[in-house]
TrEMBL record:
<feature type="binding site">
    <location>
        <position position="241"/>
    </location>
    <ligand>
        <name>sn-glycerol 3-phosphate</name>
    </ligand>
</feature>
<protein>
    <recommendedName>
        <fullName>Glycerol-3-phosphate dehydrogenase [NAD(P)+]</fullName>
        <ecNumber>1.1.1.94</ecNumber>
    </recommendedName>
</protein>
<feature type="binding site">
    <location>
        <position position="95"/>
    </location>
    <ligand>
        <name>sn-glycerol 3-phosphate</name>
    </ligand>
</feature>
<feature type="binding site">
    <location>
        <position position="263"/>
    </location>
    <ligand>
        <name>NADPH</name>
    </ligand>
</feature>
<dbReference type="Pfam" id="PF01210">
    <property type="entry name" value="NAD_Gly3P_dh_N"/>
</dbReference>
<keyword id="KW-0443">Lipid metabolism</keyword>
<feature type="binding site">
    <location>
        <position position="231"/>
    </location>
    <ligand>
        <name>sn-glycerol 3-phosphate</name>
    </ligand>
</feature>
<keyword id="KW-0444">Lipid biosynthesis</keyword>
<dbReference type="InterPro" id="IPR006109">
    <property type="entry name" value="G3P_DH_NAD-dep_C"/>
</dbReference>
<feature type="binding site">
    <location>
        <position position="262"/>
    </location>
    <ligand>
        <name>NADPH</name>
    </ligand>
</feature>
<dbReference type="Pfam" id="PF07479">
    <property type="entry name" value="NAD_Gly3P_dh_C"/>
</dbReference>
<feature type="binding site">
    <location>
        <position position="242"/>
    </location>
    <ligand>
        <name>sn-glycerol 3-phosphate</name>
    </ligand>
</feature>
<feature type="binding site">
    <location>
        <position position="127"/>
    </location>
    <ligand>
        <name>NADPH</name>
    </ligand>
</feature>
<dbReference type="InterPro" id="IPR036291">
    <property type="entry name" value="NAD(P)-bd_dom_sf"/>
</dbReference>
<feature type="binding site">
    <location>
        <position position="11"/>
    </location>
    <ligand>
        <name>NADPH</name>
    </ligand>
</feature>
<comment type="similarity">
    <text>Belongs to the NAD-dependent glycerol-3-phosphate dehydrogenase family.</text>
</comment>
<feature type="domain" description="Glycerol-3-phosphate dehydrogenase NAD-dependent C-terminal">
    <location>
        <begin position="167"/>
        <end position="302"/>
    </location>
</feature>
Amino acid sequence: MSVAILGAGAFGTALAVALSANGPVTLWARDTGWGRANPRLPGVTLPDAIRLTDDLPDAARADTLLLALPAQALGGFLADHAARLDARHLVSTAKGIDLSKLTGPSTLLAEACPRATVAVLTGPSFAADIARGLPTALTLACADPEAGRALQHDLSTPVLRLYRTTDVTGAELGGALKNVIAIAAGVAIGAGLGDSARAAIVTRGFAEMTRLAARLGARPETLAGLSGLGDLTLTCTSVQSRNFRYGQALGARQPFDAATTVEGAATARAVAVLSRRMGCDMPIAAMVARLTDNSMTVDDAAQQLMTRPLKEE
């Protein structure tokens, strides 16, 4: 099976490095001028098994394509290039909800490329850890059990362990929604509210994630796995998480690098719309949406969360 990765950001490059342990991998980038050392992944040199190219039609001939593109960029990419993607398997690594269509990446892929088998690769992982060969476990979600087993086998490596599920909706939502909660956890730390406040946000945020996912057809146990609770734990406790760092900056009232992609900010706005449409109470996600569009202060957010009506857990 030939494998190509579309998108040479830090995560796409790290996946290419990891998968090159199994054999040749093609890595497509819009700009290949950086050669064998991607500035987005300092200290990592591409192994010889990775073929770097800026020729999209060439890369898209692979049997399996991993699309390592930001969630909000995927729709536009598919609108421009879906006709060129003839792979049997399309695997999304994006963690977000498309703002325009209010759907996850797998739906965008299935609509744009109906002949392909669509899967999602998600879970607790940082690009730097994967590129360094540190042990990582992820979720491979595919509605087709046979295709899922094949992808699980082909995309696992000695240090990259994949667990399989057919619950694409649950796996995808876990990866998207945890980014929203990670922003809230970062706000708590940045504002000096303490670790106890962060723990409360993580716990109640997980309840929100599970409620919305279940309303949208996911299995609750999927959210308790790597793609939900596992990824939530990682991103809410590490400064390697861009969403957590962004929340810290919000909480501390400090500027944040505008060039850094923060998937949770757009996802929070999408979730605010979805939760109202589904009649699903998500106060933490709603707070994050208002913080990210500057319609609420951190002090007001904390007060509103703490003065909500008392209830059973």
